[in-house]
Amino acid sequence: MTGGALAALIRSSAAQRAGGPAERCELCASPLADDHRHLYDAGREEALCACPACSVLFAGDGAGDRQYRLIPRRRVKLPPVETGPLGVPVGMAFFVLREDGAVVAHYPSPAGATRWEVDASAWQEAVSRCPDLAGVVPEVEALLVNTARNLRHHWIVPVDECFRLVALVRREWRGLSGGGRLWPAVEEFFAGLAERS
To answer: Where are the domains of the chain?
Structure first.
């Protein structure tokens, strides 16, 4: 996730908490509802807020010419996925399949998202053990894993949910280990996934 995408999510969240102005479509500037859709901008590797009319334009193989892609809304709870071979150094990470077949892992941190490329054979092994991963849509969906604090969350989610989690971690982190606000906020985030799945 780029710094621009993260900054936009943080500004949006701060404006909503402060009762600030409503968000606007980043394509046509129309006011947006709270549950608006997002487009993935492949060139800038970030999510853009989109109104219903603009969302329709970029659905399927619409006007985006692969530059802009409508981020899907499906959330699929998975059985536990063995992520050790994927090289995850922490308990919370997400994995995005690229158009070229490479898989990039990210983990939220107080400085944003740290990323690294996953070994291709390790990803294929994960897919063989969890066939649902073969259906992850490149660039716009991710495998999201949270095994921190003995939890077992494994999901296929829209990539904008991952960006939202990165913004949440960055906003709530305090001290060396996250502080008292971070982990309840993370638990609330994953509870929300379950409610919306």
So the answer is: 3-70, 76-196
